[in-house]
Structure formats: structure tokens, C-alpha cells
What does this fold into?
Amino acid sequence: MNQLLRNNIARHVSLSEDQLQQFHDLFEPRLFKKKSYFLSEGQICAHEGFVLKGLFRVYHVDANGVEQVLYFAPEDWWIADIDSFSNQKPSNLFIEALEDSEVLVISRKNKDLAYEHFPAIEKLFRIMTQKTHVALQRRMIDNLSKTADKRYQDFLAKYPDLYNRLSNRQIAAYLGISHEFLSKIRNKLAKEK
Amino acid sequence: MNQLLRNNIARHVSLSEDQLQQFHDLFEPRLFKKKSYFLSEGQICAHEGFVLKGLFRVYHVDANGVEQVLYFAPEDWWIADIDSFSNQKPSNLFIEALEDSEVLVISRKNKDLAYEHFPAIEKLFRIMTQKTHVALQRRMIDNLSKTADKRYQDFLAKYPDLYNRLSNRQIAAYLGISHEFLSKIRNKLAKEK
DNA sequence: GAAAAACATTGAACAAGTTCAACAAACGCA
DNA sequence: TGCGTTTGTTGAACTTGTTCAATGTTTTTC
It folds into this structure.
């Protein structure tokens, strides 16, 4: 049983050692090289993944070819296009490895098995989805009410470890601004110090 | 058993008539006059509500006093501050009735009872939270990639019934723009026709 | 270790959206 | 019916952020 996954689960629900092991056995490990894709637009998301090592970006490409990053997923995060995975329909998202990564993946069929046999797993994913939803609501509010400058500083404060692992272009795509403008913000902030 | 609630549930999971009735019995009806609050900032969200009639707005007020609308909840929608309700902590949202409204409310205690006794209810709320999360992701992407003009037109197309029930100020707060700018957009669109 | 590709910076012109102020229209209510 | 409050409109000046193009720097890749 993987420790990172065990702790991730234990943070939300309590499961017996036996159930944890059975749930764990429904996953299989998989490696993703940097720049390879966990999921591409048009594909049906066949697996949900738990990141053991590495870093992914989950993003959308709009009609003009501009990328919007929904979130970054380093170690201890889950990756999937929920809509595509749940409803078995083509995804409109990309999930790309930004570093060589290790992931525990579970298929749709095995996840349904888990839901069927372990009510606590159903609860686990209800609670996790609620938390990510609350976080997204907060981000929505921030995007509507704060300036890019402030959002950048908040991002640095919230994800200090990611700062060194991401290019400024990626951060700009997360903040919803052009990378040139982010460069100007950085310049301005540097001068202020 | 209320028909609207029955259909809302049946859209996501299947429950026996008996279970539906037992779940339904955990709710109590409540009336909200126009301009009264289902929830105010600082309060702990004690109930989750299912709107039978009327219309609510769920919004946040930022440091400058500017309101950001997270969503509007007409008939057949659920209202709550998930974060406050789940974790019993003070809310930072307001939920206000924009029309005289009727709501079925369920307390935190009764909802826990439902989760405990009916696994299908746990599944129901997992699925509903997933759907609202997917919808919010889409809105996030739209806000990052589309112009206010386009977002306004999308809003009208998506919620044609709400258009007549909301002031332009409310719609502007949902779109994340000033009401003056919305007025200019409307003027421009009217001229184009 | 060199060439190519991706990334970061800067400036100038531009577009999108805000703010403030003034006024008109509609609504709620006594 | 009328009076006060909220809502909608418009214009001018302003701020925030974009686009494009040029230049230098760092990373990849073979």
C-alpha cells in the first residue's frame, strides 16, 4: 500500500487496513515522460490518476489556440477530466506531464467496483469533489475581483514549491493573462523590493 | 413527496419509493420573502435548501464592497455554502431571495442521517457536486478566454428564463463586469440588430 | 558542443473594461 | 398619487491588460 495514497485517503475518511489494501489493488502504476499526455482533447478519459511523483498541468485550448490552465497537479493530487471520465464522453481538456512522473491509475470499471463495495470510497470522492469545488469557487471570486498583480502574488504565496517548477508562461496561463504582461508584473514587483 | 424534488433526484440516482419518502421527510418547507436572506456572511450555514419556487442569488462581497455572483438558483436548484455547511465554519457568502420563494430545507444533522442510511444519497450528492464542479470549470474557462460581450450573449442563451427575472446589475455581477459596461454592451448589441 | 527550439523581456500602439458624474426611467410603497 | 429609492444610460478620462515585433537568454536535442 502506497503511503502517499494512504495518507491522502485518511485525510478525508477512515477505512480499515484491509479495505485500504483492496482499494489500492484496483490501481496500477504508470510512468509518464515529460511532455507526454495523460489525456488529450477528443479522447475519453479512461482512468483517474493519483500523482506519486512529478507534475501535470490540466488545461483547455480555446478557439484561438490560447491555453487556459485549470490546475497544476504535483505529488499527492488527483488528475482526471471528471466530465469525460464519469460520462464516458470525449474530453475537451489536455493533461500533460511537465516532468517525468509516476501515477497510480484506476479504470472507470474498477472505480465503479470500489464505489459498489466500499461506501467509504463513495464518501471519499464526494468530500474530495466538494473541496475542489470550494477551491474553484474561491478562485472564481478571486479572478472576478482581484487584479492580475494580486493574483500572481497570491499564487506565489499559495504554491511556493510550484514556482520553481513552472515556466512563467504556464503561470500566466493559470492566471489568465498573457505571458508578456506577467513579465511586466514581475519587473514591477522586482523594482518595488 | 414533492414532485420537483423527486424528479431532481431521479435524474441522478434511483431510489425506492419508500426511501424517497424517508429522505423527503428529513426536509421541512420554508418561505423566504423577497430581499430576505437564506444565509449571510459570518453565519454558519445550518441548512441546505432545494428551491421549489422563486429565485436566489449566491454571492460574495469583496474588500471593496463589490459583489460577485457565484450563481443564481431558481426552481429546481440547490442552495448552500458547501464549505460552511460541511465544515460548520462561518460563511463568506450571502444567499438572498430575489423573489418571494419556497424552499425545502434539510439540516446538517438530517443530511448526515440520510448519508448514513441511504448509500444512494451519498452517491446522489457526489454526482451533483461533480456536475456543478464541471459547470464551474467551464465557466472559469469562459471567463478566462471570452470577452464580456460574448459571455453576456452566452448567458442569455443559457438562461433565457432568468433574463426577465434579473436586473442588469445582477447579471453584470455574474459576468464580472461593471453594470455601466454591461449597459454599453447592450446598447451595442441592440444597434447591431 | 552547436543548432534549434522554447522561454523571458521590453516598448509602442491598441483594445477591453472601470470609474465618476450626470441624468432619465421605473419601481416600491405609504 | 406622489415621493424616494433603485435601476439603466451615456460620455469622458483613466487603468488594466493585449498584441505584435524585436532582442537576448536558457534549454533541448542530436
